[in-house]
């Protein structure tokens, strides 16, 4: 088997050739259904298309923003910000922005009045650009925050505000598009056949990622290679489909919760993106694996007890990056009062990798099915590959439980109730 | 019924008097078992005891730190930092520290080399104090980070480092206690009969909370009132026990996952504390409700789809604070291009509360059992009350599924495996 950037190791939930054979035909059929469908499947070939002009436009805008803003405010919710934020936080230092990037802040992803008030206060002594992202152009949280931020920009910059407001929305149906045209805001199109949770490789994700100082060409190169390699219809050669099949087999055996656990806290927002992708794609018609995420070893000292010995409803997917930007060596200490000199000279990342091995062994012995996804490095290329890998696996997973991976009818329920209550206050 | 600070509203999972009667006797028995036990139940009466001397010691140290440090670094994992961080993040502005508080950073809660390296770089131009928190004094993550930070302090401050290092640990058995005495570090005791996840009201939580500029007396007043009111053995009068009973009833009906959802992003770390409390107390012997948390309305546009229409394995506990520090009024906009003028003049918090109502209705109609916990204000007093409320409810919950609420045997499994691998590297 070739060496894929995502190495899937099946610890104690390996699937036999017999099992693979029972899935082979169905996977192939669903593969061709996905490939030949034109219902919200624009994301499948998007990374294979020529985006040179878009890259240049984004890169030039990034330079303009670098020179004229301290903070780039992204206004969006759900698929309109989760992908961008996942990549930005995974590849930005823990303290402060990248040297070649602009600080990115988010708003419009909830309705906290305290947060909004404090954000505006924070922005008062900084130069800013804003990017409102909404495919429909009418999502309440985003629209309300945009109303506030837009007036704030006009108060601060007067006629120059238009230059600092960027709109990412549907090219045809969105009211935001009309607002942009009427007021002279620059705007990017969200391809109509790509849904929010599959949109990180479009301008929805690429503009904030680029502004943060991250190389979007490497990121897209990872996605492109994944799109090529995972076009394989043969289950025995397609790692993403194998992951989908293992999940399905475990689901059928009664495991109702998947824990995605990673070992680098920079991946917390990546977890949020992953939860939306799988939860919103699969959770319908009374079906689906409930997706939840943990950061180890932090959570081994918290919810770890439950995984090891609690209700046997979980399986675990361990996501590990062998290298990160930066590391630290355990120092020697003459006093050795803590008895840890035996670790002196080893790196924290090395010990972290051992903690991952220990976790896999302990949980597997405890009877928890453990899937391991091993990536070489936490960088643009591998994140791009991994995100596409999960998208492809997710679409196949949803097909295997016979739900539509691309709709979200249940999200409307709370919106309707909220609107009724807002329009008819007691 | 009296008005408790935690108002429990049972939407569609109310329990009838018949059900309450079937639990009444068991709850009373377990109540007296807890009250009369001396096995790790020190937390039950701790807020009722006189801590005046401890408060003064902590307040005086907080003044010293305010005057001499820009950053207070807490080194701890699991119960040694989750409670402090929950309160600190809930009651600190989203951007920057409190006016009367010192910035608090955390380390030793995972083994990311990148994070450690970047934290030290961040600290380089700031004055610092450090607080290492570990009951046993030998937890690997914490001990390794303390080794690094201690040398860092000695390099920066020479002999004065000892004045800037504070130890919180077991008063007798811990090797950290010996290190503190030998090197002249000030130290606080973790009461031996209080476990990590029940320790937020001890110096483990109180010192970092005070240093962040939060009023620990109001916080403890909330806990004290909860401890008094929830000493009630009668299930029909004890809201914490009612919450425990509803959970147990739902668990017995096959709901295996509890989603705690709140409407203020400042509560994200509070969620982490809550997950440890319930997960580690209940998840053993193949039993327990899997605890997970969401922030609404952010997650209504992500995992909300799953809750509304996915596998029917979840029940939901909505946690809502009516008031927060700060809010924002939706402005009128002459152009009304977004059509939202009908909301002008209303506050974001008001709309957020409506979103909560809409969510409860939508999810209940979708067949999800919804419990509502309503708090008056997100402040010291109510957080203190709420945390004690959850602790009491959790102990009773664990009793109801007949597991020990105060041990965590499964956490050792991964530690053992990791140590084996570290001591015998391939």
Automatic annotation (TrEMBL), chains A, B:
It is an enzyme of class 5 (isomerase). Keywords: Cytoplasm, Gluconeogenesis, Glycolysis, Isomerase. One of its GO terms (biological process) is glucose 6-phosphate metabolic process. The keyword Amino-acid biosynthesis does not apply. GO terms for cellular component: cytosol. Pathway: Carbohydrate degradation; glycolysis; D-glyceraldehyde 3-phosphate and glycerone phosphate from D-glucose: step 2/4; Carbohydrate biosynthesis; gluconeogenesis. Its EC number is 5.3.1.9. It is found in: Cytoplasm. Pfam families: PGI. PROSITE patterns: P_GLUCOSE_ISOMERASE_2, P_GLUCOSE_ISOMERASE_3. It catalyses: alpha-D-glucose 6-phosphate = beta-D-fructose 6-phosphate. The active site is at residues 280, 415. One of its GO terms (molecular function) is glucose-6-phosphate isomerase activity. The keyword Cytoplasm applies. Belongs to the GPI family. Catalyzes the reversible isomerization of glucose-6-phosphate to fructose-6-phosphate. This is Glucose-6-phosphate isomerase. It comes from Ureibacillus terrenus. The lineage of its organism: Bacteria, Bacillati, Bacillota, Bacilli, Bacillales. The gene is pgi.
């Amino acid at each position: 088997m070739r060496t894929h950037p995502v190495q899937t190791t099946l610890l104690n939930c390996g699937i036999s050739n017999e099992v693979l054979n029972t899935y082979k035909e169905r996977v192939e059929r669903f593969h061709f259904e996905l490939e030949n469908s034109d219902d919200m499947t624009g994301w499948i070939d998007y990374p294979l298309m020529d985006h040179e002009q878009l890259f240049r436009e984004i890169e030039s805008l990034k330079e303009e923003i670098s020179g004229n803003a301290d903070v780039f405010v992204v206004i969006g919710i759900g698929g309109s910000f989760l992908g961008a934020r996942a990549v930005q936080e995974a590849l930005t230092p823990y303290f402060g922005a990248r040297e070649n990037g602009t600080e990115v802040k988010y708003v419009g992803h909830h309705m906290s009045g305290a947060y909004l008030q404090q954000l505006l206060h924070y922005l008062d002594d900084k130069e800013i650009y804003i990017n409102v992202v909404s495919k429909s152009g009418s999502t309440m949280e985003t629209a309300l925050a945009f109303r506030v931020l837009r007036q704030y920009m006009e108060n601060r910059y007067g006629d120059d505000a238009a230059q600092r407001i960027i709109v990412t929305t549907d090219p045809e149906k969105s009211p935001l598009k009309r607002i942009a045209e009427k007021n002279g805001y620059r705007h990017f199109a969200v391809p109509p056949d790509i849904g929010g949770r599959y949109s990180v490789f479009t301008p929805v994700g690429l503009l904030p990622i680029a502004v943060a100082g991250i190389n979007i060409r490497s990121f897209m190169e990872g996605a492109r290679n994944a799109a090529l390699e995972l076009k394989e219809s043969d289950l025995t050669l397609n790692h993403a489909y194998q992951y989908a099949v293992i999940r399905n087999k475990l689901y059928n055996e009664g495991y109702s919760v998947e824990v995605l656990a990673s070992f680098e806290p920079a991946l917390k927002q990546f977890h949020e993106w992953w939860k939306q992708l799988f939860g919103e794609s699969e959770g319908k018609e009374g079906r689906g694996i409930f997706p939840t995420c943990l950061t180890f070893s932090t959570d081994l000292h918290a919810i770890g007890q439950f995984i090891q010995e609690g209700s046997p409803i979980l399986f675990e997917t361990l996501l590990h990056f062998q290298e990160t930007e930066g590391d630290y060596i355990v120092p020697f200490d003459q006093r050795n009062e803590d008895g840890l000199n035996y670790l002196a000279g080893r790196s924290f990342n090395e010990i972290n990798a051992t903690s991952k091995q220990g976790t896999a062994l302990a949980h597997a012995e405890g009877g928890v099915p453990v899937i391991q996804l091993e990536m070489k490095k936490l960088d643009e290329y591998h994140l791009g590959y991994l995100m596409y890998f999960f998208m492809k696996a997710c679409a196949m997973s949803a097909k295997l439980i016979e739900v539509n991976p691309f709709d979200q009818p249940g999200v409307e329920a709370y919106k309707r109730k909220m609107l009724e209550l807002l329009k008819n206050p007691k």
